[in-house]
């Protein structure tokens, strides 16, 4: 019983058994000293911790929200997608659970190795395709004889939908999902060994009045390089990295050496195109600004100072009088 937490009823039952003589304290001690054997199924090797499974679930809850928005816009009908479960099972068990005829999309996610599978229930897939073709979203069952046009429509739709995975995985990995294969029979897909552990994310999906499941199968080999990123510590920590004092000083030095363009606007003038085309060397333009009035000094394109134009020796210059205040430009 070491390591187990007993309920109040179990405690009362033990005390009652000792008091009535049905069980002695020595028997209880002997039972505690016996080694407990925990059954472990090597075919169902647990490669992911509960912490990592929770992170995967959180990532795909975000993915489900992105898919809901994407399909709602593409199909122009009611679409609702949410995570039903996240389990780690052998790949063979996943393939056995998939219907004999279904929609299977195979994706590569470079720079990660391996492939990801996305299985869509035909009831959902045909409802989506019917909406794309202008129908009411009704579903038919003829998955075994998809036409070339139907195959192209479905593969294009789910290829674009899976682009949302890039954003959903943004906190743990920078991936580039690529649709590499489209299949209807799971028996033809042997992307990894049957005993390899995979994470299966099941998504409840409703398209109009049609409902079904979408399953995402991610092999352990795909997630292995980014396993540390699936920890709660990595997930919860701030994305902002505080600079060390020496790094802060080095950054300040580089900023101080950055070049800035400074310009003083002496005035402006309005000309007709005909007048502009007739300009010649020596012509004088009348500006809207008096020569003795202060001018605006710009840093880049942002007004920052009021300055007085003048002459320094043989050079023209400006003297800063005051700083321009007000508006968002103060933060620049």
UniProtKB/TrEMBL annotation:
One of its GO terms (molecular function) is cytoskeletal motor activity. SUPFAM superfamilies: CheC-like (SSF103039), Surface presentation of antigens (SPOA) (SSF101801). Keywords: Bacterial flagellum, Cell membrane, Cell projection, Chemotaxis, Cilium, Flagellar rotation, Flagellum, Membrane. It comes from the Bacteria. One of its GO terms (cellular component) is bacterial-type flagellum basal body. It is a peripheral membrane protein. CDD domains: FliM. GO terms for biological process: bacterial-type flagellum-dependent swarming motility; positive chemotaxis. Belongs to the FliM family. NCBIfam families: fliM_switch. This is Flagellar motor switch protein FliM. It comes from Jeotgalibacillus salarius.
